[in-house]
Amino acid sequence: MNASASSAQGPRRYVIIGNGVAGNQAAELLRERDPDSRITILTNSRLLFYNRYLLPQLFKGHQSWHAFLANPPEYYVQRRIEVRRDCRVVSVDTRNKQVKLAHNEPIGYDALLVATGGRSHLPEDLADCRSLFHHFGTYEAAVTTRKALPDNGTVVMLGGDMIGLDLARTLLAVSCRVILVTHETTFWPHKLTAEERADALAALEKMGIELIDGDARGGVTSVEAGAPGLPARRVVFRQGGDLYGDVVMPFYGLTPLVEFMVGTGTDIERGLLVNTTLRTSDPSIYAAGDVCQIWSEQDHAYRFYYGYKNVRAMGAVAAINMTGGHEHFATTQEETLGRDGQGHIDSPFWACE
Amino acid sequence: MNATDIQIAICGSAGDGTIAAGDILRNAVAAAGYRVICFDVYPPEIRGFGKCISRLRITTEQSYSLKRQSDVLVSLDDSHTIPHAGEVRDNGAVIFESQPISPCAEGEHMSGHVLPGQIPYGFPIRELAQKATGGARSRNLVVLGFIAGLLGLAPASFQKIIEKKFAKQGPKVVARNQAGFQAGFDAGKGSFKLDDAAFGPFEKPASAGKVIMLSGNAAVVQGCIDAELATFFGYPITPATTIMERLATELPKRGHRLLQTEDEISAMAATVGAGFAGARAATATSGPGLALMAEMLGLATITETPCVIFVSQRGGPSTGMPTKTEQSDLNAALYGSPGDAQRIVIAPTNVEGCYRCAGKAFEMAERYQTPVIVLLDLYLSNRYETVTLAASGPPFVLDANKPLRRLEPGEVYKRYALTADGVSPRAVPGDAGCMHVITGLEHNELGRPNDSAEMHTAMSRKRHDKLQAALEHPDFAVTKRFGNTGRVKVGILAWGSTFGECLEAMFMAQAEGIVCSAMKVVMLSPFPTKAISAFMDDCDAVLVPEVNYEGQFAQLVQGVLARPVVRLSRVPSSPMPVELILGEIRRLSGVTASAIAS
Ligand SMILES: Cc1cc2nc3c(=O)[nH]c(=O)nc-3n(C[C@H](O)[C@H](O)[C@H](O)COP(=O)(O)OP(=O)(O)OC[C@H]3O[C@@H](n4cnc5c(N)ncnc54)[C@H](O)[C@@H]3O)c2cc1C
Predict the structure, then answer these.
(1) Complex prediction ipTM
(2) Suppose B278 and one of A58, A104, B288, B428 were both cysteines; which one would form an S-S bond, judging by CB atoms 3.0 to 4.6 Å apart?
(3) Does the CB of B440 have a partner CB in chain A at under 8 Å?
(4) Does residue B246 share a domain with residue B117?
């Protein structure tokens, strides 16, 4: 039986998986363009959409999650946007047009937008140490990490993508010690030449970040709990040697969250593959944000586009096309890693409105 | 005002252990020193069907009613809980099963009904229960543990209560429930707290007495026992049944007696008979039972026999709504017998009042030789509160039943002697020389039938006047005024359980700058004309909230005093919402909604 929310009788049902920038931008536009429709955002988060770009501020002093909310609760009530929190999507039944939630509830859709973003990537070798890492991707994780970090404590950053380096700036400002174990993902998602990279690393040192060449030590092989009397974590290198810190944070870039789409028949490479209208290979399913790889005529390949501006634009393009428009995504995001007046690195990805 | 003020609602289906969870929670927090008011709602149907809700308000100082909005809502059954999602305030917590045992249709899971301002906490309740105890029966304990862990309550007082509650079922059952609680506690403690329901810093207040947790009916029983009730006759009826059930255990332990009669007519008849025989006697019933007792109540009035009738009101008329609260038996309590059937009717306003009124009822019955009706209601009978029992012992003076002085030789005993205060010397069967006639007929001073107009007038006056003294007696609570003194914009006149809601509304109104006061009227018959009239003199407007349709108390006030009151009579099948009363206070004080918002 097809239990989808078929629009034959009722209003059209849009379901958005993901409560981030892309999902919320799409919801807002969907409401504007289809006032009678039913719009549902599904998210595994317990919080309404909040600004993750501001999370480093937590390390400057305690702030309640209210301070990070992008919209007050009434916003959703007024716009009749249903946000189902604490709901993890585990699969999508494209034949019956249903999204399946972990608690065994189907959610029918007419058009589906996948905007699940990405999770902090962890190299396979380190997967077993997951519980010993300190995380930063959500408000809850950031607060937990902050609580684990003593005043003037030591943070060991592995990798050092631009999300991590943004946090590093704040940590230095509050007199923490930051040790960066470099990796190929350092400066991700910026793509740097060897020369640019060396220059950028020098800039990091100038900022006060202590660098350890991870590759030269064969990479990190494990993270362990520190021994009594020593800092809480020990980082062990493959070619010998170790390093102690109060918290150890992985910043190896993002992995798109697409597991629940596997088996749907929708094309996936690393992310969900979409054309420039952000439609997947399934005509009822669109994707936007960090989760999707968009066809680039120029590169003749599918590629990721990161940054607030891009993600927001993707949410808008998807919404327009889901409501019958025909818009193409084009990036407007500056991608060059720059320097500020003090010679410190400055990234266009750090800017958000 | 209150450092801690948290309301928790647990909702499930009959058989989920919802009420048991509420019971453990209220006892655990009370043992930790908090004050509690708790009201359980359960279905008339048998186990396995119907909705059960246990609502608890936990405070540092005793509160007067439940809040309209809970801070935490727990679902043990989503189908029953979903309609209550809106009860949770913004930033409050909604706790539910994240892994239901069977698939649910779209919209049937709790997560779909959590409002944007609320915080959802889905967690695998059943799975944790299974892992910890090998079965799902301890889900209610898992949930309790989760609440304790999330809100930062120490587990020790819970563990003690669990131990006590399940001790009879053996160590295995105790251990299973402790394990369920612990699993939930760990999950709650490990959950990132996003809601803002919090227990404030707690200093155990020095209390002059013993603090115990009682339901209204249990408080009635405690009052009966402390007043040394000797005989009880009853016939079960919701919501009064638990009075009889408890007394059935307690009275025999003290060498006293309880008899379940074949119906309410004989229960009342036996109570009158026991009272006549000199035994301290009582019965308990609800509206339909009171109707059957009407004739025998008249007999108690005309024979001037001390006896006490506890009436717990429910939705009526007739069988009505047995599990819903109402205050619609006032007229029946006041007038529900043929003839000028004078009697005392008192109504406690909270659980502590149930205890006090129960004991005082015997005092009044014996002092004035009259039936006394104690008017409760389902909300009061079934709700739990922490009650302080005075260290100095029961506050009852039960000396009116003392034996008669010996008669002088040749002196004729007049059972119904017309005395200055209307109270005649009372003999009980066996008192030497005091043999007298007693029937349901109007009588002369000797008790012999007499239907002359003069005697009927004299006896009617006697039966009427003797009760008036109760209004002036220093030991009896008649009315009490709260809030602003002197002239007020709005005066709230309330009786019974609704007074708690009125008091909350009055405090809220005062916080908004409205000058108002509230008078609780404990004695409904004889009518406290002087006190109420003086109160009304001070009020620009008088509001009478009550849970009945006809405005029975408002009618009484208007009938006696011929002064206007504003009625707020509703039958919501639940206690009167505080906000409704507050809205009326605002309206009557001329405060507009926009003024409040600003
Ligand atoms: C801490 C942090 C700081 C950052 N700072 C910056 C910055 O300063 N500048 C910048 O340009 N970029 C920054 N980024 C990257 C930026 O967040 C992303 O590019 C952007 O948020 C992507 O938006 P999105 O809508 O695609 O996905 P996200 O914002 O990641 O949102 C994905 C949503 O999907 C939900 N979800 C995922 N899987 C499921 C599932 N199975 N079921 C239900 N829900 C699911 C998640 O809970 C989340 O609500 C930062 C990222 C992080 C984590």
Answers:
(1) 0.94
(2) B428
(3) no
(4) no
